[in-house]
Design goal:
Blueprint lengths: L1 H39 L9 E11 L2 E5 L5 E6 L2 E2 L10 H14 L3 E4 L12 E7 L2 E2 H7 L4 E2 L10 H13 L11 E2 L3 E2 L1 H103 L1 E4 L5 E2 L10 E4 H6 L3 E2 L5
Parallel strand pairs: 3-6, 12-14
Antiparallel strand pairs: 1-2, 1-5, 2-3, 4-8, 5-6, 6-7, 9-10, 11-13
Helix pairs in contact: 3-4
Bound molecules: zinc ion.
The site of zinc ion (ZN) has 5 residues, from loops.
Length: 336
């Protein structure tokens, strides 16, 4: 039993390894086989029979590439409608493409159906009705004003009335393509002159909008610059005022200090002067006292003067000046 499992594992491993190394070649072989299949596989184009398909590529409003069940990829042109020209960037061409894409993306089941007439057009595109979850996409597009109905000369007319009715409704309500004057032509196609005029007008509107937006932007920028400049100016003024006030305060402070210092100096000087005066006076007094003490004058017993010598008749006796002054005598006018 164990041995068998071992053998089985060995074989599996060998097979895996061979696949691993053979992979590139195998890949090309598969691709080659595929393209061969695509060329050789025949498509049954049966009228009135719905065939389930998958989307390969969204081309435009009325063209889609589908993948059939057998792997074949086909380009389908939607029967009986014409969506605006995407290559010419005609009005609502992009909208039509987007809408078709939306319808098919949201559909769980997509089917194509051939009619009794021509199955392919001159470009070998399949001429089909396209169904999304049981609803005819051609009818939806015509109803929403994203495609006009297109009558054919042949036998592909199965849903023409249905689509024309939808187109009529869209036209009545001026939906999308029908909102542009002379653009959509019921049952036919589109007037290129009207499309070009519309595009030109749209471009002009866009240019005007752009210019207006630019103007507003410039205006806003100028406003912001002005606001910034004003703010800077205000800030500078505020700073200058602050500086001025600080300088003023500093100057006042200095002046006050100077005043105080001057006052103090004046007081000091006055005090010094008073002291000097007092000192001088004291010295004078001392000198006078000293002088009075040492000096000899002559006095008479009854006279009110003192003299430097016996300056008249009478009895003069010597005395110190101090004594004479103490007695209340004053200097003789003749002697002094
Ligand atoms: Zn005298």
């Amino acid at each position: 039993m164990k041995k068998r499992i071992g053998v089985k594992l060995g074989v599996t491993f060998a097979v895996l390894v061979s696949f691993l190394f053979a992979a590139p070649t195998q890949h090309y072989q598969v691709e080659a086989a595929k393209s061969k299949t695509e060329k050789t596989v025949k498509i049954k184009r049966t009228a009135n029979k719905k065939v389930t398909v998958k989307v390969k590529k969204y081309v435009d409003g009325d063209t889609t590439r589908f993948k059939l069940k057998n792997g074949k990829i086909v380009t389908a042109k939607y029967l009986l409608i014409k969506a605006p020209e995407l290559k010419k960037e005609n009005p609502y061409a992009q909208e039509a493409k987007d809408r078709t894409k939306e319808i098919l993306k949201n559909a769980e089941k997509i089917q194509i159906e051939y009619d009794k007439g021509a199955k392919r057009d001159s470009k070998k595109r399949e001429l089909v009705y396209v169904w999304a979850d049981g609803k005819l996409v051609q009818e939806t597009l015509a109803n929403e004003g994203l495609a006009v109905a297109r009558s054919t000369k042949g036998k592909n007319t199965k849903y023409l009335d249905k689509i024309k009715k939808a187109e009529e409704k869209a036209k009545e309500q001026s939906r999308n393509i029908w909102a542009i004057e002379n653009y959509a032509q019921a049952g036919k196609g589109y007037n290129q002159t009207a499309a070009d005029e519309y595009k030109k007008a749209q471009a002009e509107v866009r240019a005007a909008k752009k210019a207006e937006a630019e103007r507003l932007k410039k205006e806003q920028e100028a406003k912001e610059a002005e606001e910034k400049r004003a703010a800077e100016q205000a800030e500078a003024a505020r700073k200058a005022e602050e500086k001025r006030l600080a300088e003023e305060a500093e100057a006042a402070k200095k002046a006050e200090e100077e005043r105080i210092a001057q006052e103090a100096a004046a007081q000091q000087a006055a005090a010094a002067q008073a002291q000097a005066e007092a000192e001088a006076q004291a010295q004078q007094q001392a000198q006078a006292a000293e002088a009075a003490q040492g000096q000899t004058v002559y006095v008479t017993p009854t006279g009110s003067k003192y003299h430097t010598h016996k300056c008249g008749n009478g009895t003069y006796t010597p005395a110190t000046l101090e004594e004479a002054q103490n007695r209340g005598l004053t200097a003789c006018a003749k002697c002094y």
